[in-house]
Specification:
The structure holds 2 protein chains of 2 kinds. Chain A is of the alpha+beta class. Helices cover 33% and strands 31% of the residues of chain A. In chain B, the strands form 2 sheets. Chain B has a 9-stranded mixed β-sheet, sandwiched between helices. A two-stranded antiparallel sheet of chain B has the order 5-8. Chain B has one domain: Class I glutamine amidotransferase (GATase) domain (Rossmann fold, 3-Layer(aba) Sandwich). Classes of the chains: A alpha+beta, B alpha/beta.
């Protein structure tokens, strides 16, 4: 079995109001000096069998087309055996 | 004229959109997300709601619905398509329109009667308005903040593809007060506020929204 981990973050130039709200909450809870918070998503995909060749390529394609929106988000993907 | 109205699981405004089509003088045709048959309609409305629960991102899963596999190439071929609210999100996720719609900058769901200025009247959905006409229609969204990179914004501004802009207050942080845009050809239009809720005096703040639905009927008659 393979485990695929896809991290999705808003592009740096896209405002992140949720991250900004979290930043405010951290400050109110006593954590000084928080300069910025960006909130993202992580997908953990467990797949039967080895993930290689066409299936790996398709996984990567779908990470860019379904799991993230290239207009506003960047993703990174890694595969754990 | 037969105007298709798509229902996805979680769509809310399909009945109002169909009603608006009827009041405008068209014949609404129900289209189902799981069916790739567009039933020979002359135009399509993607209505508002929370398709597929808005899971992942608004419109992200709807984009891959069977109905979209027919609708995307048809829109690219010139079929008039109006996406309202969630429908606008679906059109952006489908890359039929540039940019994306993200969480309101206030983080609050906004529901209000919103004043807009119609800025382009040569699209298939706005021809019955006058240039610069101000209208009031309901706005109700949680993820209505229109974003795109500066280059894209400059491009759509330069090509005159901003079809409507928020007036008085920018309710959701949309870049450059953009409430609606069109594709280059003018057949595909996305709008965050809800014209289909402003077609009757009894229930709407105005009947200004009717113009979108009469416009497409006028355009279609003109092309035949």
């Amino acid at each position: 079995m393979a485990r695929v981990i896809v991290d999705v973050m808003l592009k740096p130039e896209i405002l992140d109001p949720q991250g900004r709200a979290v930043q405010g909450a951290l400050g109110r809870l006593g954590l000084d000096g928080v300069k910025d918070v960006r909130q993202g998503k992580q997908f953990i995909v467990d797949i039967d069998g080895d993930l290689e060749g066409d299936r790996l390529a398709l996984m990567e394609k779908l990470a860019g087309e379904l799991l993230s929106n290239p207009v506003i988000e960047d993703f990174t993907m890694r595969v754990e055996a | 004229m037969r105007i298709g109205v798509v229902t996805f699981p979680g769509t809310l405004d399909d009945q109002d959109a169909a009603r608006a089509v009827t009041i405008a003088g068209g014949e609404p045709v129900a289209l189902w997300h799981g069916d790739d048959d567009l039933k020979g309609v002359d135009a399509v409305v993607l209505p508002g709601g929370f398709s597929y629960g808005d899971y992942l991102r608004c419109g992200a899963i709807s984009r891959f619905a069977p109905v979209m596999s027919s609708l995307i190439p048809a829109a690219e071929g010139g079929l008039p398509v109006l996406g309202i609210c969630n429908g606008f999100q679906v059109l952006c996720e489908s890359h039929l329109l540039p940019g994306a719609l993200t969480r309101n900058d206030s983080l609050h769901f906004i529901c209000r009667d919103q004043r807009l200025r119609i800025e382009r009247t040569d699209t298939m959905w706005t021809g019955d308005f006058t240039d610069g006409q101000e209208i009031v229609v309901p706005l109700k969204n949680g993820e209505g903040c229109y974003v795109a990179d500066e280059r894209t914004l400059d491009e759509i501004e330069g090509e005159g593809r901003v079809i409507a802009r928020y007036l008085e207050v920018n309710p959701n942080g949309s870049r450059r007060d953009i409430a609606g845009i069109s594709n280059a050809r003018g057949n595909v239009v996305g709008l965050m506020p809800h014209p289909e809720h402003a077609v009757e005096a009894l229930t709407g703040p105005s009947v200004d929204g009717l113009g979108f639905f009469t416009s497409v009927l006028t355009s279609l008659v003109g092309t035949r």
